[in-house]
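Data deposition worksheet. Section B asks for the primary sequence of the deposited chain exactly as it was used as input, without tags or linkers unless they were present during the calculation. Section C holds the resulting structure in C-alpha cell form. Section D is free text for depositor observations; keep each observation to a single sentence. Incomplete worksheets are returned to the depositor.
Section A, Depositor: J.P.
Section B:
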Amino acid sequence: MEIIWNTVALFLTLCIFSFLYKDNPFYKFAEHLVVGVSAGYFAILVFFTGFKPKVWTPIFKQGEWWYILPAILGIMTWARFSKKWSWISRFSIAFYMGIAVGVAIPLDMQQMVIRQLSATMLPVHLMSLQGLWNLVIILGVLSGLIYFFFSLEHKGVVGGAASLGIWILMIGFGAGFGLTVMGRVSLLADRIQFMREWYMMIKGVTGG
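Section C:
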C-alpha cells in the first residue's frame, strides 16, 4: 500500500510539474483534485471543530440553550443563497462584521502600529555594534517615510533621504522575494528527493 500511495503522489506531482510545459488536462485534473479535497477536508474540519463542540454539544448535551441564538444567526447566513430571502442574511452578516471589526481594530493597532513604533524606539550607542545597527534601523524607517511624504519637493536633504528610502524599500522587497524563492526551491528539492526515494523503493522491490 505504501508503494501504491507513493506512486499516486508521484503521478500527481508530475501532473503539477507538467504545467511548466503548458496547460494540459493532467494539470487541470490535479488542480481540481486539490481544490476538491481541500474543500471536503475543510468542511469536515469545521463540523468537528466548530459545529459539534460549539453548537451540538452545548445545546443537546449540556443544556446550554442560549447557544441557540448564535446557531440561528448562522442558519440565517444560508439565506444568502436565495434571491427571495437573501435579506435575512444581512442581520447575521452585520452582527458578525460588527464583532469582527471591534476585535480586529485593537489587535491591528497593537500589531501594526504600536509594535512597529516601539521597534524603532531603540537605544543608540555609537561605541557598540548593536547601537550602530539600531541607528541604521531608525534612519531606514525615517528615510522610507520621507519617500512617501509628498508635501515637500524631493530636493536637497529631503531628496537625499527619499533616495535612501527607495534603496531601503528595495532591499526589503528583495529580501522578502529572496525568502519566498528559497521557500519554493526547498519545496522543489523536497519533491525531487521524494522522486529519488520512490525510485529507490521501486528498485528495491523489483530487485533491479
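Section D:
Residues 122-208 form one domain.
The mean pLDDT is 89.
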